[in-house]
Amino acid sequence: MALMGIEIIAITFLLHGMPSILKGTRVAGNVFDVCTTCHPNATCDKKTDGSGGFACNCVYGFVGNGRTHCEDKDECQIGANAICGDHTVCHNTHGSFYCTCLSGYAPTNNKAIFIPNDGTYCQDVDECQFQGICGEGGLCRNTDGDFECECQVGYRVQGGTLPFHPVREKAFCKAVDCGLPPSVQHAVQLSPLHTRYGSVISYGCQKGFLWREGDNSSVCAPEGKWRGPSLICEEVHCGEPPAFPHSSFVWDRNTRMGAEVRYECEGGFRHVGPASVAVCTAGGLWSRPSLQCEEIVCGKPPVVPNSQMLWNRHTSVGTNVFYECEEGYHKVGTGNISVCTENGLWSEVSFICKVVTCGDPPLLPHAGQVWNGSITVGSTVMYYCNGGFYYVTGTNISECSADGYWTKPTVTCEARCGHVPEIANAELVWDNESTAIHRCVDGYYSQSGINMSMCGADGRWQAATMQCREIRHGISHLEVFNERCLRWVSDGKKEDYKVVLVGRRDYQKSFVDTRRNAFNSTDFRPQVCLKLLPATNYTISITAVLASSSINITTNTTIQAAPVPEVMFRDVEGPVPTLWLHRSVHTLDPICLYEVFVLPVEGTLVFDCNSPRSPHFPKDSSCHGEYVAAQIQVRDVGKELNFTVGDEQHYGGFYNAPLENGKDYYIILRTVCQWGQNSKHSCVIWAKARGTSYRMRMSAVVAAGTIAVIGCVVLIGFFYTGYVKN
Ligand SMILES: *[C@@H]1O[C@H](CO)[C@@H](O)[C@H](O)[C@H]1NC(C)=O
Ligand SMILES: *[C@@H]1O[C@H](CO)[C@@H](O)[C@H](O)[C@H]1NC(C)=O
Ligand SMILES: *[C@@H]1O[C@H](CO)[C@@H](O)[C@H](O)[C@H]1NC(C)=O
Ligand SMILES: *[C@@H]1O[C@H](CO)[C@@H](O)[C@H](O)[C@H]1NC(C)=O
Ligand SMILES: *[C@@H]1O[C@H](CO)[C@@H](O)[C@H](O)[C@H]1NC(C)=O
Ligand SMILES: *[C@@H]1O[C@H](CO)[C@@H](O)[C@H](O)[C@H]1NC(C)=O
Ligand SMILES: *[C@@H]1O[C@H](CO)[C@@H](O)[C@H](O)[C@H]1NC(C)=O
Ligand SMILES: *[C@@H]1O[C@H](CO)[C@@H](O)[C@H](O)[C@H]1NC(C)=O
Ligand SMILES: *[C@@H]1O[C@H](CO)[C@@H](O)[C@H](O)[C@H]1NC(C)=O
Ligand SMILES: *[C@@H]1O[C@H](CO)[C@@H](O)[C@H](O)[C@H]1NC(C)=O
Ligand SMILES: *[C@@H]1O[C@H](CO)[C@@H](O)[C@H](O)[C@H]1NC(C)=O
Ligand SMILES: *[C@@H]1O[C@H](CO)[C@@H](O)[C@H](O)[C@H]1NC(C)=O
């Protein structure tokens, strides 16, 4: 079968190349001429018989008489193969024929048609010369009169089988695609991804993994599958790190890539060179540290004068050199050794060799020496016990030894102390030559002190310090009588008493009365009277020292007679009578006050010194004109006070009224002391005066120790302790 497209092309070709065999109809001349009678399809040819005439001969391909008919001869009748040759088609034409080639063949004259008489024949057309006739990836194979397609390597037929005809079949070649390349454990793909046939992908092992075996590339095979890789990646293991002489290493036994090993030189060696670390590299090998351990060498040991060295002549670290003093010398200092140290130096020697002498021999307590003063080695000293001491034990000889020291004498000399000392009221419980123990006899006791006597190093007893005291009964039944005396019950033996008293007052915070007293007594009922101050609370403590007994008591004192000041009339003749008071400073001041009473002499006079504090004279009394002229707190008065009667001032809320002209008055000074419910009063007649409008005339009144009877009534309870003076 011929290809349709090819057939069309072949036909076109034939038409273009058609020879003009049909042109050139011949026309006869105007003279009859046989030739003019020739059939259009005949030629007029000179006769061949030599007659010189012309004859009509049908042209080639026609048969007939040449004049009336020339009919087409069908040359193809005899068969195309016979007339046109192989692979031909015979085309009869009017009067002729032509040949064309069968599909898949072409005439050798390179024209569309041919007449075989020029040697033209049909030869096979090589369709494969037409590029791309089999499509992409197709492989054309020419056949006799036809062709067929195979697929190139890397292509596979689609829609048919091989071989195929691209026109007649829908088959075509398609490039092989291997798809995603295979993945390999611990490997990564290195080359860019092409998945066509023949593409090569190479793999490399991941970091930390190393190629062990197999092909590290994969090829896209014609059958559309990847071939390879057979690569096997193995984790990098560097194995045991390398060892270096005189070194050790610190290693966590990690052999993977990046693992580190730190090298250290062993003792006596030091590290030379920059690095001391090996690292497990990607290639599975330990990087070589530039480690070099160099032996530390100390050189010559130090020289100690007058000594010999004991030395193995090595200079490596740890080597010891011993020093030994030469004869006649002794070592001073502790170290007799020098060691070659890690820093390449010999350790210092704190050792010197000195000429041996022993110095002064040791002294022993209570021992004397027999010594000729020699301090060279081998000299000896003898010891003996001093007088009063006796040899007990120990060696009594010391020798100057080769090391410069006296051998230690151990003589002990003990004192002879004699009789055990006696302790008053004590007996001996136990004793040996050097120690005694004492104890108080019955009825005695010891509070403190040591109960042991010891024979001292000086040969004398160190007596016990205990003191035996008689066992006593303490104080009891302590009581206060007569407000200021104490009495108690004792055991009737001689006793040292100590009295301590402390007095305080609520009304006078600054007041404190502290006193101590001591006395001896042998009474069964001792008593003591104390000078206790009035209006005071006392705490009194009595201690019996020997009986070591103590008892306390508290007691109050009452207010006694109010203290009366010293009064004087100073200016009798003056225009204003002034009274002068000189008071004795007393501790009761805070609770005492002075009151000045003015009493007319005329009429009935009643004055009670113990009357209430602010006296109100009875209204219906026949005694008129009496009044309080002033009230003055004692604590406000200094050492002395000048008071002018009738100066019209106020004193403590009382008006000091002027004295009536021509009248006689008594001026009375009262002292009042009061604490709580307890109060005491004292009165003194300060003056007798006559009133004037402006001045007072004083007539002194003095009656020592008397009770004045003035006017109508006796002054009761009128204490007089001061005096009035003109
Ligand atoms: C002569 O031959 C041609 C073809 O070759 C033909 O077409 C023509 O009709 C012929 N003439 C006559 C008169 O027969
Ligand atoms: C592949 O393996 C070969 C040895 O077989 C090696 O020489 C080459 O470097 C490897 N290629 C890659 C990319 O690892
Ligand atoms: C070094 O001194 C020590 C005591 O300090 C002693 O035991 C040792 O024998 C001495 N060595 C030498 C060589 O003198
Ligand atoms: C002292 O006594 C020693 C023996 O202990 C003796 O060798 C030395 O010569 C004596 N020295 C003197 C100066 O007598
Ligand atoms: C030294 O002790 C011995 C006993 O060990 C004694 O015989 C000698 O008399 C003592 N020497 C002196 C000097 O006391
Ligand atoms: C006496 O006794 C004391 C204490 O027990 C003891 O230390 C001492 O050595 C003794 N003395 C004698 C000479 O026995
Ligand atoms: C001596 O005194 C001690 C305490 O200092 C005491 O233990 C001991 O009993 C006393 N001995 C006698 C015999 O009293
Ligand atoms: C003494 O003590 C009593 C009671 O504590 C108290 O009421 C009184 O005021 C005190 N007296 C003095 C003078 O302190
Ligand atoms: C007690 O009497 C003794 C003498 O027996 C004497 O030494 C001492 O001073 C007296 N003490 C007092 C406080 O009087
Ligand atoms: C007695 O009083 C004193 C001081 O006030 C105090 O130190 C002591 O303890 C008192 N003694 C007794 C037995 O109350
Ligand atoms: C002191 O005396 C008052 C009465 O003046 C009395 O009430 C009080 O208890 C006494 N205080 C002492 C401690 O005796
Ligand atoms: C009171 O008067 C006398 C004599 O005139 C004078 O010496 C004294 O200083 C006066 N006292 C006061 C406190 O004024």
TrEMBL record:
Domain Sushi: 176-235, 236-295, 296-355, 356-415
Tree of life domain: Eukaryota
Segments forming domain EGF-like: 31-71, 72-111, 124-161
UniProt main location, coarse: membrane
An example Gene Ontology CC term for this record: membrane
InterPro entries, alphabetized: EGF (IPR000742), EGF-like_Ca-bd_dom (IPR001881), EGF-type_Asp/Asn_hydroxyl_site (IPR000152), EGF_Ca-bd_CS (IPR018097), Fn3_PTPRU (IPR057598), Growth_fac_rcpt_cys_sf (IPR009030), NOTCH1_EGF-like (IPR049883), R-tyr_protein_phosphatases (IPR051622)
Keywords (A to Z) from UniProt: Disulfide bond, EGF-like domain, Glycoprotein, Membrane, Repeat, Signal, Sushi, Transmembrane, Transmembrane helix
Region forming the signal peptide: 1-24
Molecular function via GO: calcium ion binding
A Pfam cross-reference name: Fn3_PTPRU
Membrane topology category: Single-pass type I membrane protein
Keyword Transmembrane helix among record annotations: yes
Subcellular location: Membrane
PROSITE patterns: ASX_HYDROXYL, EGF_2, EGF_3, EGF_CA, SUSHI
SUPFAM superfamilies according to UniProt: Complement control module/SCR domain, Growth factor receptor domain
Keyword Membrane among record annotations: yes
Membrane-spanning intervals of the chain: 698-720
Name of the protein described by the UniProt record: Sushi domain-containing protein 1 isoform X3
Originating species: Clupea harengus (Atlantic herring)
